[in-house]
């Protein structure tokens, strides 16, 4: 097996083998672009390294030695030669981009003799020793495992002693002194002298990059972004070019379009007299790329032309790393750029209009989760704002939370459900777990391409960077802006779109989709096969769902209507009734309330279908808590002044609650079982539904009624409940002297219903898979207990790949869905089949429902756009897979 490829040997189709960075370096090399020469060690070498117990295979070492000799010949430089020194960068590069998660080392190959030779060759001692100290600093951190702050402390002390503020103000002699201290720190920490042999440095660096595939931040990143753990990383070894050779040199990162807004204009930053890590590390605040046009107009024009060429070649927005060495431009990397949801949508739509991609590809370019991010809140324009400071608007969205200064604390408090905002001088890849659980992130240093900015944009979190007005004291856990002090735990708000940092909580408003959003979803609607409905329980929810493009309501939960403050006493009267007459009286008081509910929902959704689920939860959920009642009775019993009537009433209530109490209520008296024991409850609801529908029909609007019987496990349950519904319809229709079409169906949420779907389908007009309960009953999990007690362990240890309540378990629950659909349609060719659990709003699950042949999915209103896009992507990918292969 070949483990090493020179850049000229690969191309962009080899991403799985060469990693994204290596494949794109190869592609740019083949295109004749100014790329420093080098070679890539493949992802297969990484896998072999782990397979051999974290040992570099002998074959790999031989190939790397040969590749170094070829690189020396090509560059006319040699490793370790003070007269013609070859220095290289060693960078990771996975097949799926993981910005900042793995390790990089620059200037490898330098030692005392090479630094002195480099000084003579360039006539610039300061550059030579700056390059040397950078290498020791990176190598010490990445390879030898010495905390980077140990090195930063040495530099800060030197600057303080010299009375300067910035690194470029230190002289060659300063850097020599810093290097001596660095080497002393390393020898003290490792009990070994720093390695000076370039070949030894190279192999230690390669090992460190391979090891970084499994560092904690990379593992967390892969978990968040659902990247497989077995892909491995490639290693790119590339001859160095130097951006730290004075004011005619520099380094930068640029995007071919604005990654926050999608605007079609070059966007990025650069630093003069710096190396690449300076830009993303946030140690110095860079300049916007537009300034390069004034400083080096010819270089800027060349870069602008290359950027457009790369975007046209890859047909996507590019993220480009580049260096200028003494006025000459070099490209170090290009990749498809991370972008916000807003930018992703705009770029996809604009590229269709520019003729770069077609509508199908545009739909596939935007992840459904991005649309969810796009519906983020923003600060109410009418709100009075107490502005503390302003930084760079790195990632849009607004958030309010309590200030924390530590990523571990942000993670811990976030897991407890607390809203926190992470405030740091700058973030590093080690902070990713805290960013993931925070509402937003603020840094006092760094620019638009800093770690905080890139990671927050990828996660859809608001971010403000480079807020230099805030002075952070990590030891005291506070920051100051002038005389104002904000301490840990204080409430702060932030607006990632404007960069404003605000004192206290501010009102937030919901987002409004723009023209590009609507255009993209219009294309999605033309492609998808699945209908998309919404789960909505109120007219307001229904109207919101419709505004987001819902084609009906797939689940209206009537029990939510019973929980309103003015209704709960009547519901309790119905439950506690001592006779059928008392229960009938209470139900008659509830019926008009339910009728108005249904009328409003039908009207908001007309002429689209509305699926109303009859009462599902156990009755005890509407009654006071048993333990609290027990305590009340005990307290009143001990109180001599207690009202005897009140005490007796409490005792009667306790008696009823005790009678309804169940050991396992999720599998007890609920759903259709409740309807069978108390058919008058379902009859009341059916009457309210039909009366509301007939009222709307009289007004000239069409109500499309679908009544869903919950928790059916046997066909006879549905037969009995359908008879109740049909009987009520007949009576109400006669009262109104009219007819209307309606459907009666069931939720498939217990395995027996799926296994006997052919029998149930003979009675049902439709099936709706209730995948939340179906997952519980298939796995035998209680969701609350499972998620609270052991599911996280199952996922962390890869017993399960995903939380089955978040992503459908295709191998188990999915088989029941497929079986139920197939059996049901064999018995009833007109059977409509959908899903109304939370999985109806999750992209991976929607792709499964498409392949299983369902007719619709139903999701919460705010996830309707996501579901529309996911359904379109499932259809587009299916057609792509079915298309005949073309010979090129």
The protein's oligomeric status is single chain
Radius of gyration: 33 Å
Shape: elongated
The poorly predicted ranges are: 884-888
Mean of all residue-level pLDDT scores: 91
Helix content: 40-55%
Structural class: alpha/beta
Major sheet: arrangement of strands: 12-22-21-14-15-16-17-13
Strand content: 15-25%
**Total strands:** 31
> Quick one: biggest sheet?
8 strands, mixed
Enumerate how many helices there are, as a single number. 36
How far do the termini sit from each other?
28 Å
Protein traits:
about 900 residues; alpha/beta; 8-stranded parallel barrel; 36 helices; 31 strands; elongated; disordered C terminus
What would you say about this model in short?
With 888 residues, the chain is of the alpha/beta class.
Give your account of this protein's structure.
This protein has 888 residues and is α/β, with parallel strands linked by helices. Helices cover 48% and strands 17% of the residues. It is built from 36 helices and 31 strands. An eight-stranded mixed beta sheet has the order 12-22-21-14-15-16-17-13. It has an eight-stranded parallel barrel with strand order 24-25-26-27-28-29-30-31, surrounded by six helices. Strands 1-2-5-3-4 form a five-stranded antiparallel beta sheet. The longest helix has 26 residues, at 580-605. The chain is elongated and about 105 Å long. The model is unreliable at 884-888 (pLDDT under 50).
